[in-house]
Design a protein that fits this description.
The chain has about 250 residues and is mostly beta strands. The protein is built from 3 helices and 17 strands. The chain is globular, with a radius of gyration of 18 Å.
């Protein structure tokens, strides 16, 4: 079975150009260095039930469970997926935390989500990860959204990060100008003749952000600021149900 990962877009912080401060030791990274493993294996993870068509807001931080994944130790959030009807896609949104310093520069952090699925006997599918692509919806925060098809036999989903990223920075646009940006709202998306994947992306965002318009910059240009990757952040999850009348997916 071929799995395709698609990055889609979302809400952003309107920030003015500036320089990010040097990386400091923040609470999640400091705590992760000494956090004990929560479990002997993924079978013992603390799973939370997750239903389709429900926006689940959550945080991953120093109070979260930690585990030594193949890519390194990470705090994580684990979900048990509904079996009937099984959701077909998972959209994981991660918000960049941006704050202007007293000296006029910008500080912040960004949690790069990595998704792993497990079946009933805890065979792993993944990890799934995308390249950060920050866009804007005018509400006040930059974010990325990682959209992953859910394997047919998946029963569990885990959101973590790649520990190897924690020694690096991600660049976030310093300025967003709505002028010239491509705009699409939920009403226009519903009647759009765009490709199925694009339409599904808009439907997902409508659920996550209550129908707010989405702005896609016409081109990537202008200045950006380096922000550290983080071991923690604020996230949201949307599990898309099968389309009405859709045939059952076979393994």
């Amino acid at each position: 079975m071929r799995i395709i990962v698609t990055l889609i877009i979302g809400a952003a912080a309107l920030v003015s150009a500036g320089c990010a401060s040097n990386r400091g030791t923040t609470a999640p990274e400091a705590a992760l260095a000494t956090a004990p493993s929560c479990c002997a294996s993924p079978r013992d993870f603390p799973f939370e039930a997750a239903e389709s068509d429900e926006r689940i807001a959550f945080s991953i931080d120093e109070r979260s469970s930690a585990y030594p994944f193949a890519s390194g130790r990470s705090f994580f959030k684990a979900f048990a997926l509904a079996e009937s009807p099984q959701p077909v896609t998972a959209t994981t949104v991660s918000f960049a935390d941006m704050e202007q310093s007293t000296l006029g520069g910008w500080t912040g952090r960004y949690f790069a989500p990595v998704v792993v699925f497990y079946d009933a006997v805890f065979k792993a599918y993944g990890p799934f990860q995308g390249v950060p692509d920050f866009l804007f919806d005018g509400r006040g925060r930059w974010f990325t959204a990682l959209r992953t098809p859910i394997p047919p036999h998946a029963r569990y989903m885990v959101v973590m990060t790649d520990a190897r990223l924690l020694h690096d920075n991600v660049r976030i646009p310093a300025v967003f100008r709505p002028t010239g940006a491509k705009t699409q709202d939920c009403a226009s998306a519903a009647g759009s003749s765009t490709a199925a994947a694009g339409a599904m992306s808009m439907e997902t965002l409508c659920g996550l952000f209550a129908g707010a318009p989405v702005y896609a910059p016409a081109a990537k240009s202008g200045s950006s600021v380096p922000i550290p990757y983080s071991a923690g952040g604020d996230l949201a999850l949307w599990l898309s149900p099968p389309a009405a009348g859709a045939p059952k997916t076979e393994p």
